[in-house]
Design brief:
- With 193 residues, the protein is mostly helical.
- Helix content is 46%, strand content 8%.
- It is built from eight helices and three strands.
- It has a three-stranded antiparallel sheet with strand order 1-3-2.
- The radius of gyration is 22 Å and the shape is elongated.
- The structure holds a DNA duplex (21 and 21 nucleotides).
Length: 193
DNA sequence: AAGTAATGCAACCGCCGAATG
DNA sequence: ACATTCGGCGGTTGCATTACT
């Protein structure tokens, strides 16, 4: 059993947990400005921080980096996240890589707190982006049109309906839409894994 | 105004793969 | 070939804030 590379519970040098103070932020910024993003495991001690390397890296990557955009997501960013999630699933770092100035944590949080709920309200399964048949036909048609707008051409040919029985023995039908490689190319995202 | 529930988000946890000895 | 270390990732937690009763 390999010991964790950063174990806050066991490492006596790590006294600080939770929210970062301004002083800690400043120490980290100063150190990285001076030395660059070097070895994270030795950085805390060198910078005089009572944190683990992982925590420092996370803080820098997600909040202190100068190239971060911060602030609310725009509609174009939201659309892009939905499209990318449909293609990539929960691979937040890849999705964030397509959004300049955004971090994986930020995208993940935005997805879980906003987009997920929004899709559910519209009758779309956020996990597989399939459209639930329980929503009225007219609304269903609007959903299909929206997906077409997202870049899926002639999606009706890819439409399948599956019956699902969940743990509570509830039966539900869901219409799913699969896209082929041409559809992905339509999105013109030049994705590389 | 006070109490409670819901929400948003920063940070932590544990796992994985790559690099290294 | 194997063990260890490290950086990176996604899932989850917990706290602060906001909305609601």
């Amino acid at each position: 059993m390999r010991k964790p590379s950063c174990d806050i519970k066991l490492d006596k040098n790590i006294k600080n947990k939770g929210v970062w103070s301004k002083q800690e932020d400043q120490k980290l910024i100063d150190y990285i400005n001076k030395h660059g993003e070097v070895c994270w495991s030795t950085l805390p001690q060198a910078a005089g921080l009572l944190r683990c390397g992982k925590s420092c890296r996370l803080r820098w990557m997600n909040y202190l980096r100068p190239d971060l955009k911060r602030g609310n997501f725009g509609e174009d960013e939201e659309d892009l996240i939905v499209k990318l999630h449909a293609l990539l699933g929960n691979r937040w770092s890849l999705i964030a890589g397509r959004l300049p100035g955004r971090t994986d944590n930020e995208v993940k949080n935005f997805w879980n707190s906003h987009i997920r709920k929004k899709l559910i309200r519209k009758g779309i399964d956020p996990n597989n982006h399939s459209v639930n048949h329980k929503i009225p036909p007219l609304q269903n048609q609007i959903m299909f049109n929206s997906l077409k707008y997202f870049g899926l051409k002639d999606i009706s040919k890819n439409q399948t309906t599956k019956t699902h029985v969940d743990n509570d023995d509830k039966v539900s039908n869901a219409t799913s839409i699969e896209c082929d490689n041409d559809d992905i190319l339509d999105l013109n995202l030049e994705l590389s894994l």
